[in-house]
Amino acid sequence: MKMINPPGSRSGSKNRTVWIVVGSSIGGFAVLCLIIFVAAISCKCKKKKLKPGRVENEAWTPLRVNGGSAHSRMSELTLNEYRSLKIPFADIQMATNNFDNSLKIGSGGFGVVFKGVLGDNTKVAVKRGLPGSRQGLPEFQTEIKILSKIRHCHLVSLIGYCEEQSEMILVYEYMEKGPLKKHLDQVNLAEWAMEWQKKGMLEKIVDARLAGQIKKRSLKKFGETAEKCLADYGVDRPSMGDVLWNLECALQLQESDSEPSREPGEDSNANAPELPAHAIAPRDLSDNTGTETDGSDGSSSSEIRNSQVFSQLMNNDGR
């Protein structure tokens, strides 16, 4: 006896086959999408891991040239000039006993200052920038660019710097006896001078060895600039560019021949107040005295150099 399948069972079998095919297609497509997604994520992670290694292998070039980006390369001459000031991080760690807190001598907006001794027994002050500070980067760059070119007996000299391991470290010569204000018996020179500035008698406290050499208009401009810099609130103080412009103006007024050094019969040091004799010791100014030259050409070139003395220092990337 032969069994005949009813029509309903055939249609059910066909439906199951269709659903199996559709399910397999959808599953395969989902697996393919998942593989593509995982591959994209892994590629992105690999790129992120490669970036730090590439940056660490590059030579230090944070100093911008002609307004370029932070990745701009400096010229070989400039790069070699700054490389001569580089100090290995290991040497600085040894000099400061790995930045021991007992050697901490100060702190500020840029970072912490430590006392240290280099391998050649040079006493130094090590200023270590705050980790990851973008605000301190312009100051770090500017101090290297400017202080590496300036040497003066009254200015702290920059000995070197370190930028290894993303550090921003500046190394200065150490002032063994501390700042000048500690030796003035608590006399605040700024307040003392401003009292005479407000009276319009700043010439009364000019050093006796400079009496008659400073012109009134130049001294007035200088006093006004200093007074603005000592304003109580930061918003009232001029920018560094304005300060340098005013100082250059005061220098030009001093060099002009349109005004006598002082009025006839005027004693610029009459009734001048005195600081304690032991507070300020007289200094020999002979080291800073230049040699006079005759001739209009020499005078002209000297005036050009003097008029540019402040403008050459102007750098708005600093603090």
Largest sheet: 5 strands, antiparallel
Number of separate strands? 5
State mean pLDDT (0 to 100 scale): 70
Shape, per Cα inertia axes: elongated
Radius of gyration computed on alpha carbons: 35 Å
Structural class: alpha+beta
Strand order of the largest sheet: 1-2-3-5-4
First CA to last CA: what distance?
A: 106 Å
Binding site for ATP: 127
Biased composition (Low complexity): 287-303
GO cellular component, one term: plasmodesma
Domain Protein kinase: 99-319
What key phrases describe this protein's structure?
Phosphorylase Kinase, domain 1; 319 residues; single chain; alpha+beta; 5 strands
Give structural notes.
There is one protein chain. The protein is an alpha+beta fold. Among the domains are: 76-173, Phosphorylase Kinase, domain 1 (2-Layer Sandwich); 180-279 and 302-313, no CATH class. 41% of the residues lie in helices and 9% in strands. The chain has eight helices and five strands; from the N terminus they run αααβββαββαααα. It has helices at 7-57, 76-83, 89-95, 136-147, 189-198, 216-229, 240-255, 296-307; strands at 104-107, 111-117, 123-129, 158-162, 169-173. It has a five-stranded antiparallel beta sheet, sandwiched between helices. Strand 4 and strand 5 (169-173) form a beta hairpin. Helix 6 (216-229) packs antiparallel against helix 7. It is elongated and about 120 Å long. The chain starts with 6 loop residues before the first helix and ends in a 12-residue tail after the last helix. Mean pLDDT is 70; it is low at 50-79, 260-272, 274-307 and 309-319.
